[in-house]
Amino acid sequence: MLSIPEKSLEDLEYNEVLKQCADFAITPMGKERIYLLKPLTDSAVVLNDLQKTSEYKASFDNENRIPNHGFDDLSPYFKLLKIENSVLELEAFRNLARNTETTNTLVRFLEKFKTYYPTLYGCSESLYEEKEIKPTVDGVIDRFGEVRNDASEALFSIRKQIQQLRGKISSSFNKALSQFGNADYLDDIRESVIENRRVLAVKAMHRRKVKGAIMGSSKTGSIVFIEPEATNAQTRELKNLEFEEGEEIKKILSKLTDFFRPYLPYLELQHSFLLELDIIHAKARYAQEIGGLLPEIIEDQKQIIYKNAYHPLLLQSHKLEGKVTHPQDIELDSDNRIVVISGPNAGGKSITLKTVGLLQLLLQSGMLIPVHERSKASFFDNILTDIGDNQSIENHLSTYSYRLKNMKYFLRKCNSNTLFLIDEFGTGSDPELGGALAEVMLEDFYERKAFGLITTHYSNLKALANELPAMVNANMQFDNKTLEPVFKLVMGEAGSSFTFEVAQKNGLPFNLINRAKKKIERGKVRFDATIAKLQKERSAMMKTGQSLKEKESKVKSESDRMENMNAKLKAKLTSYQELFDHNQRMIVLGNKLNELAERYFTNNKKRPLIAELLRLVETENAKRKRKTAAVSKKEREEKKKLNEEVKQDLVKVRREKKKEKKENKIVEKAKPKLAVGDQVRLFDGRSVGSIDAIEKQKAIVNYGAFTTQVSLDLLELVQAVKKRK
């Protein structure tokens, strides 16, 4: 089980997904087991669970659909079977037979289609088709749930006597009914039933004239209900026979229970199999509902590449409301282990964070996730989250105090097998001090080689992501014209918070916005404005690039079509030329044969005719051989020419690589050594700052508005503090 607190599962709303998934289970036991699901770290077990779910989901879309697996809970019966001399109820035997029949159907099906469902077949390998249970139960209990008459000879005899006696009772009662009816002793209703016995409705005044047992009277006392004397004696005998019948049934059921005791291990295994199948079925149905699938699992390294990833709960909610859900593309790997997401509020930063975390939890619980089929994923031992307002009233902790306590836990648990997710990193305290503390903690997570996503508005964290090689900025796009979020994550650049633009859109007075701008540092405004400008340019470039790609695709398609048409025309011309050459040869050959025929008709000599015919055949054969040899020679020459070209290209590539290495060495030697006070800038940046200090191949660069720590390898000299030798 994952080393994560219950609060993290609550942050990512994991239990809400389990509730939705549990609705697809067809048994109460299946629902309960789904509620208890927890993410796992054993990659072999998780992969096996994912494969089972994927195979079951695939069965919905093909003709070989997995049969129904509905079953009854037999666990109470297992306890009774372990107790000596215990007897199961009639309904228990019917349930045992029904479950066995269901299991047999599934075992036969999975055996037949094990090439389609190899992992599901593995679930049933320890089971077998049990052929004794159902016939044995059917031999004792009929389809109405009653013990059969022929279940034993004694029961058959007792029930036969009961049937005969009931006939006698009916005959005796009818005789008494006729006798006392004719004597006018009976009321208009004539008879009734009391305690499951037929009784005569005798008028109260004649009750002493009718012999038998008084069973009761009417409310008014005008009618007395009497069972005739003869019928009463026969009823007592019937009760004795019914008691004997009950005792015989107990013996039969006891014997049947003893038959099932040796099957207890099989029945428990069968029950586990059916329960597991119900859980897998529920996961597969939920995956079908949200469009879930199994991404490629990477085991040799940590990697998350989610394409078109949806938040399952948001997807379901929007589906009910008829709204559009925006998917996200996220990439985490050894080169980009930590992603710093920035951008405006309500732009989708937190949802992106929760999407990654929730999908990771579901994946490690054996559930398919709503992503594109080209997505990739890995498993993590720890998933740590700090999302939302974490005030703790019980412990008298503020939001910031709680977050610091949480960060302490993060620092203790973070390693290369950790995925951490932090929303609004560093907030809750003074922006400068909180930002500095957040920066050093982020550096610590980075040095521990942990993987993670954070959302922030702090510029120093954005700058840090730009400096460290395995950390990358990302931003949620914002439409600068409508000032509305477009819910699209763009990797590779920081995002502006669009604070003043959003305030303006929401109707805040211009004079207040202008006063606010004057109250903050000019450098900060310019920095935020520059980021906003870069985002706009990036958006425009993306649209232009998309347009160019579409045009390029159309041109390539047209070019391919023309090449294809050209090839077809060449093939047709070659075919026509060959046909023309063949026809010409046939005409020449026909003319020669015609001349030989005329010569033969003139001189009537066979020998010259045959000799000339043989010469013609040999000449034609020699021409064909020469043509075949010429074609083979041409193919050999073309192959030789191609090999020569490949060799020349290889030599050229090797020369270029050698040249590149030499140039890189020269550049490295020529690069001046940086010192405190030098004016420098980033290789890909425009802002110039001065070096305040140098520690361990890292420089503290002062840009005026803020200072930041940058690797020396990323800086280039603009102006030296003193003249270099």
Write structural notes for this entry.
There is one protein chain. The protein has about 725 residues and is α/β, with parallel strands linked by helices. It contains 20 helices and 19 strands. About 0% of the residues have low confidence.
In short:
55% of the residues lie in helices and 15% in strands.
Count of the domains: 5
Main sheet: strand order = 10-11-12-8-13-14
Shape, per Cα inertia axes = flat
Main sheet makeup: 6 strands, mixed
Radius of gyration: 45 Å
Contiguous uncertain segments of 5+ residues: 391-396
Mean pLDDT over the full residue set: 82
> In CATH, what is the class of the largest domain?
Alpha Beta
CATH H level of the largest domain: which superfamily? P-loop containing nucleotide triphosphate hydrolases
Please, how many helices?
Answer: 20
Strand content: 5-15%
**Fraction of residues in H or I helices:** 55-70%
Instruction: Please count the beta strands (DSSP E, at least 2 residues each).
Output: 19
List the helices and strands and how they pair.
Blueprint: H1 6-11, H2 14-22, H3 28-35, H4 43-59, H5 75-81, H6 90-112, H7 118-124, H8 133-138, H9 153-182, E1 186-194, E2 197-203, E3 212-217, E4 223-228, H10 229-260, H11 264-290, E5 296-297, E6 304-309, H12 312-321, E7 328-332, E8 338-342, H13 349-363, E9 376-377, E10 382-386, H14 399-413, E11 418-422, H15 431-447, E12 451-455, H16 459-467, E13 471-479, E14 484-491, H17 499-505, H18 510-519, H19 522-603, H20 606-670, E15 679-682, E16 689-695, E17 698-702, E18 707-711, E19 715-719
Parallel strand pairs: 5-9, 8-12, 8-13, 10-11, 11-12
Antiparallel strand pairs: 1-2, 2-4, 3-4, 6-7, 13-14, 15-16, 15-19, 16-17, 17-18
Helix pairs in contact: 2-3, 3-11, 4-11, 6-7, 6-11, 9-10, 15-16, 19-20
